């Protein structure tokens, strides 16, 4: 049995600090995190986790809470205004008050939705994140970005609303489909390039092992990636500055997700987005060849995609214009000046963008 690892996330912008617990058999921790003020607990979960949600419900009932479960669609289909509206209706019908607590149980799509419902219900109620995918644990569950997608763009409607606690039970990873697990590695690798290169060394030492929760470095990879995220969001919850580095690879990545009508896995799109960002850095004269090339080798070594359709460029460029980092007509990209050295490339020449896209297109 693994000992529980605790990572502290500092409070900022009027929000309280909280802990991320990583371990096994963390179910018992849920009651402690909810506390005695709450009467009702709503567990929002995807179809894939119906059985787990039922176990949690029974447990909460046993602890004296009025527990309800809200099943939502798997994956990105949950991140819609219709699904949020369904959740609001259920909360209304059950008399959910400001002292009650929402639990988001699932991957990043579910926790983004659950956090958004918590942020908007009665203008904000407390919520706990229980991530059950690699991506959810290392990125989505931490930091309080919540939201839903619209046809015009990814996560375009949302709020900064941090959870009061995060419970990452490693046992849940055992049932995650392989391609979803690998998708999560894109965010782990992102953390490696922007802040903690030891992550890259660990993956390169055993890429096959990195693609399974049974791999030798799973806990260390998760712990390191969460630490990167916790350090960044503790100082800049609302993305006024440094937090933008967590968006490495996301400007093109989100455009690809929109172009695929949110049927692609997030990590797959971000993988291509990071290769593009590396090429931008290289072509702008900021990033050395070895680090730019390393993106391709490490991402490919775990089976993540590196290229996208050449003919999609005009649509992707259009989508990138409403990226949240844009200011007016100015496109802004997170790039690297070296390993772990991030900077912002503002308003790059259109020819530079085309040249970088040529390097990732097929
Ligand atoms: N808020 C943030 O800071 C942040 C950070 C990164 C990513 N995200 C968002 O996270 C989402 C991607 O998250 P994801 O990769 O976890 O995908 P996901 O939530 O879509 O989950 C992938 C699939 O696995 C299923 N699943 C979840 N847990 C399972 C388990 N334990 N066993 C079996 N099946 C399981 C889900 O139902 C879904 O079908 C995107 O919407 C992305 O925008 C948010
Ligand atoms: O936490 C952040 O900040 C991030 O940018 C992390 C990203 O991995 C994540 O995909 C996030 O949801 C992107 O947010 P967005 O504001 O660009 O939609
Ligand atoms: Zn992401």
Brief overview:
This protein is α/β, with parallel strands linked by helices and 362 residues long.
Strands ordered across the widest β-sheet: 1-2-9-6-5-3-4
Roughly how many Å is the radius of gyration? 20 Å
Largest sheet: 7 strands, mixed
Q: Which structural class matches the secondary elements? A: alpha/beta
Coarse morphology: globular
Number of helices: 14
Q: Name the beta content range.
A: 15-25%
User: Helical residue percent?
Assistant: 40-55%
Which molecules are bound in this entry? nicotinamide-adenine-dinucleotide, the ligand O=C(O)C(=O)C[C@@H](O)[C@H](O)[C@H](O)COP(=O)(O)O, zinc ion
Pattern of helices and strands: EEHEHEHEHEHEEEHHHHHHHHEEH
Taking all residues together, what is the mean pLDDT? 97
Find the count of extended strands (DSSP E, 2+ residues).
Answer: 11
Pick out the low-confidence regions.
none
Domain 3-dehydroquinate synthase C-terminal: 184-326
Catalytic activity: 7-phospho-2-dehydro-3-deoxy-D-arabino-heptonate = 3-dehydroquinate + phosphate
Protein name: 3-dehydroquinate synthase
Organism: Kitasatospora cystarginea
What does this structure look like?
Helix 5 runs parallel beside helix 9 and helix 10 packs across helix 13. The termini are far apart. The strands form three sheets. A seven-stranded mixed beta sheet has the order 1-2-9-6-5-3-4, with helices on both faces. Strands 7-8 form a two-stranded antiparallel ribbon. A two-stranded antiparallel sheet has the order 10-11. Helices cover 44% and strands 19% of the residues. With 362 residues, it is α/β, with parallel strands linked by helices. The chain has 14 helices and eleven strands. The mean pLDDT is 97. The radius of gyration is 20 Å and the shape is globular. The structure holds nicotinamide-adenine-dinucleotide (NAD), the ligand O=C(O)C(=O)C[C@@H](O)[C@H](O)[C@H](O)COP(=O)(O)O and zinc ion. The ligand O=C(O)C(=O)C[C@@H](O)[C@H](O)[C@H](O)COP(=O)(O)O binds next to strand 8. The site of nicotinamide-adenine-dinucleotide has 32 residues, from helix 4, helix 5, helix 6 and helix 11. Its cofactor is NAD(+); Co(2+); Zn(2+). It catalyses: 7-phospho-2-dehydro-3-deoxy-D-arabino-heptonate = 3-dehydroquinate + phosphate. It is found in: Cytoplasm. It comes from Kitasatospora cystarginea. It is an enzyme of class 4 (lyase).
């Amino acid at each position: 049995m693994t000992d529980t690892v605790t990572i502290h996330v500092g409070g900022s912008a009027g929000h309280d600090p909280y802990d991320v617990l990583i371990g096994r058999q963390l179910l018992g921790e849920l009651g402690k995190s909810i506390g005695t003020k709450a009467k009702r607990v709503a567990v929002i979960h995807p179809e894939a986790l119906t059985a787990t949600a039922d176990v949690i419900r029974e447990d909460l009932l046993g602890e004296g809470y009025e527990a309800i479960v809200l099943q939502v669609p798997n994956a990105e289909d949950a991140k819609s205004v219709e699904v949020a509206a369904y959740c609001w209706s259920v909360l209304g019908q059950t008399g959910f008050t400001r002292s009650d607590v929402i639990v988001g149980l699932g991957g990043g799509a579910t926790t983004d939705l659950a956090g958004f419902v918590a942020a908007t219900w009665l203008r904000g109620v407390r919520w706990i994140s229980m991530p059950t995918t690699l991506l959810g644990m290392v990125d989505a569950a931490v930091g309080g970005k919540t939201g839903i997608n619209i046809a015009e763009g990814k996560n375009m409607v949302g709020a900064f609303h941090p959870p009061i606690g995060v419970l990452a039970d490693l046992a849940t990873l055992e049932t995650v489909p392989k391609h979803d697990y690998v998708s999560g590695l894109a965010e782990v690798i992102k953390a490696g390039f922007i802040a903690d290169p030891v992550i890259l060394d660990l993956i390169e030492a055993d890429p096959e092992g990195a693609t399974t929760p049974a791999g030798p470095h799973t806990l260390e990879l998760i712990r390191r990636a969460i630490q990167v995220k916790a350090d960044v969001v503790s100082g800049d919850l609302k993305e006024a500055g440094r937090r933008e580095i967590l968006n490495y690879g996301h400007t093109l990545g989100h455009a690809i997700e929109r172009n695929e009508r949110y049927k692609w896995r997030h990590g797959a799109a971000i993988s291509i987005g990071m290769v593009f960002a590396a090429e931008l850095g290289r072509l702008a004269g900021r990033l050395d060849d070895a680090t730019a090339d390393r993106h391709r080798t490490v991402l490919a070594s775990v089976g993540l995609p590196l290229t996208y359709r050449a003919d999609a460029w005009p649509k992707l460029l259009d989508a990138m214009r409403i990226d949240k980092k844009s200011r007016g007509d100015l496109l802004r990209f997170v790039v690297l000046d070296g390993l772990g050295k991030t900077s912002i490339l503002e308003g790059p020449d259109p020819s530079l963008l085309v040249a970088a896209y040529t390097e990732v297109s097929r």
